[in-house]
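Input (structure):
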C-alpha cells in the first residue's frame, strides 16, 4: 500500500496526476491531507475541479508555528502509518507537511518517496530550503524533476541508484487541466480581456511581513503597471491582505484586488496574462511551461531551469525594466526543461517495481 500525503493546494494540484493514476490502476493507497493551509471551500473546489476523490483522512492541522505544525503532522501521520502499515509514503516539495510526514514514516522504518527532490535555492534563510535538504537526506526514492536537481543530490552524497529523473508533475497537471481552464468564466465576470493585464501573486514573508518591503513591492507593481500601460490583477493571499491593512498601505486603481481563486480559474488567469509577477515557486513553473513572460519577486530561485525566460528581480525597478526589455526584444527562450508530462507514470511505476 502507498500512502500519499499533501498539505497545501499547490501540492494537491501537483500530486493530482499521481492520485489519478493510482485510482485508475486500482493500486491500493490512502490519501492523506494535513490541511496545513486549511480552507474547506478551496479544497472542495479544487478536488471537484480536478475530479479527485476526497482525502481518506484530514489531519486538520491548520496554521501554527513551524514546530507546532510539524509536530502535529508527525503525530497524525504516525497514527495512520501504524494503522495501515503502508510500504511507502509519498511526499511532495518542501512544506512542513513534507518534513513531518517523512520524519514520522522514517522513524517507523517505512520507505519515503520524495517528489521534487533536489531543488535548491541555496538560501538557508528559507524554511523551505531546510525542509528540502532534510527530506532528501532521509528519503529512499528521490524523484528529481530535472538533471540539475539530480546533480544537486549527487553533490550532497546521495547515491545515484536512489535517484530517478522524472520530469516535473506540474507538466502532467497542466496537460491534464489546461483544457478545463477554457471553461472558466472568470475573465468575463471581471470584464477583462486576454492580454490586457498583469497577473500578480505575492505571499512570502520576505515580501509582505515588513512595512518597508511590502511598500517597495507595491511601488514596483505600480511602476510595472505604468510601464506596460496595463491593469494589475492581484488575487490577494489572506496573509498579504492582512498586512496591507495592518501597515495602512493603499494601492492605486491600477491594481485590482480580488479574492483568491480556484485552480482552474488561476490557470485561465495565467494563460491569458501579458506578464506574470510572482514570488511563488509553483507559479514560476506553470508560467514557464505556458511560455508566459515572467518575473520573480525574490532574490533567488530553486528553479534555475526557468532562468532562460524568468528574471529574478526582487523588488528592483531597474531589474524589472531590463527584464521587460528582454521580453519585448524577444531575447528569451522557453526550453523543455520540465519533461513531457510523463512524470506521474514514471513515479508510480518506480514505486510498484518488485
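Output (sequence):
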Amino acid at each position: 500500500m502507498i500512502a500519499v500525503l499533501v498539505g497545501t493546494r499547490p501540492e494537491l494540484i501537483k500530486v493530482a496526476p499521481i492520485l489519478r493514476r493510482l485510482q485508475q490502476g486500482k493500486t491500493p493507497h490512502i490519501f492523506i491531507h494535513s490541511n496545513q493551509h486549511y480552507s474547506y471551500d478551496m479544497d472542495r473546489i479544487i478536488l471537484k475541479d480536478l475530479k479527485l476523490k476526497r482525502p481518506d483522512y484530514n489531519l486538520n492541522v491548520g496554521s501554527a508555528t513551524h514546530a507546532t505544525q510539524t509536530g502535529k503532522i508527525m503525530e497524525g501521520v504516525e497514527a495512520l502509518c501504524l494503522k495501515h502499515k503502508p510500504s511507502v509514503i509519498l511526499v511532495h516539495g518542501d512544506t512542513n507537511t513534507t518534513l513531518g510526514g517523512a520524519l514520522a514514516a522514517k522513524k517507523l522504518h517505512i520507505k519515503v518517496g520524495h517528489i521534487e527532490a533536489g531543488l535548491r535555492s541555496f538560501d538557508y534563510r528559507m524554511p523551505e530550503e531546510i525542509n528540502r535538504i532534510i527530506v532528501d537526506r532521509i528519503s529512499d526514492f528521490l524523484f528529481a524533476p530535472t538533471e540539475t536537481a539530480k546533480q544537486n543530490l549527487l553533490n550532497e552524497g546521495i547515491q545515484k541508484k536512489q535517484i530517478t529523473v522524472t520530469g516535473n508533475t506540474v507538466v502532467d497537471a497542466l496537460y491534464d487541466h489546461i483544457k478545463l481552464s477554457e471553461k472558466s468564466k472568470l475573465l468575463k465576470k471581471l470584464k477583462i480581456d486576454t492580454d490586457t493585464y498583469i497577473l500578480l501573486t505575492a505571499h512570502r514573508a520576505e515580501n509582505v511581513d515588513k512595512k518597508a518591503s511590502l511598500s517597495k513591492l507595491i511601488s514596483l507593481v505600480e511602476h510595472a503597471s505604468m510601464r506596460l500601460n496595463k491593469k494589475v490583477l492581484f488575487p490577494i493571499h489572506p496573509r498579504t491582505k492582512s498586512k496591507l491593512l495592518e501597515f495602512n498601505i493603499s494601492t492605486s486603481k491600477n491594481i485590482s484586488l480580488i479574492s483568491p481563486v480556484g485552480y482552474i480559474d488561476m490557470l485561465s488567469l495565467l494563460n491569458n496574462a501579458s506578464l506574470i509577477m510572482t514570488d511563488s515557486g509553483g507559479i514560476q513553473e506553470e508560467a514557464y511551461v505556458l511560455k508566459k513572460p515572467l518575473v520573480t519577486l525574490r532574490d533567488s530561485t530553486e528553479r534555475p531551469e526557468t532562468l532562460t525566460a524568468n528574471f529574478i528581480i526582487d523588488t528592483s525597478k531597474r531589474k524589472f525594466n531590463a527584464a521587460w526589455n528582454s521580453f519585448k526584444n524577444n531575447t528569451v527562450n522557453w526550453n523543455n526543461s520540465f519533461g513531457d508530462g510523463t512524470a506521474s507514470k514514471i513515479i508510480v511505476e518506480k514505486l510498484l517495481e518488485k
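Notes: The CA atoms of residues 113 and 141 lie 4 Å apart. The first helix runs from residue 9 to 24.
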